[in-house]
């Protein structure tokens, strides 16, 4: 589910273990939006339409298009990971979420 707060788009994603993560809804390569609205992510991944880069439900990178064209220092796994927002959930819902900007 996409959640918008103060001009920021956040994806609230149920993890395979039933927990919930809140991730900034932005491609780490081109800063484009990864998903809109609510529903399921095809194949359990989010992807950038403009570049084809993909991320797993936990925010880790799963595919970098033409990876060999990038300096390895630019595509470190932790640098490509979608930025997480602080979130807390209660019985059946997310009850608190804070969007933090920056690294």
Describe this structure in words.
There is one protein chain. The chain is mainly β and 103 residues long. It is 4% helix and 37% strand. The chain has one helix and eight strands, in the order E-E-E-E-E-E-H-E-E. The strands form two sheets. It has a five-stranded antiparallel sheet, with no helix packed on it. It is globular and about 45 Å long. The chain starts with a strand and ends in a 5-residue tail after the last strand.
Number of helices: 1
- Mind telling me the C-alpha Rg? 14 Å
Could you estimate the helical fraction of the residues in percent? under 10%
Q: Sheet with the most strands?
A: 5 strands, antiparallel
Give the strand order of the largest sheet, numbering strands 1, 2, ... along the chain: 1-2-3-7-8
Distance between the termini: 23 Å
Q: How many runs of DSSP E, i.e. beta strands?
A: 8
Report the mean per-residue pLDDT as an integer. Answer: 81
**Contiguous runs where pLDDT drops below 50 for at least 5 residues:** none
SSE order, one letter for each helix or strand? EEEEEEHEE
**Coarse morphology:** globular
DSSP strand content: 35-45%
Structural class assignment: mainly beta
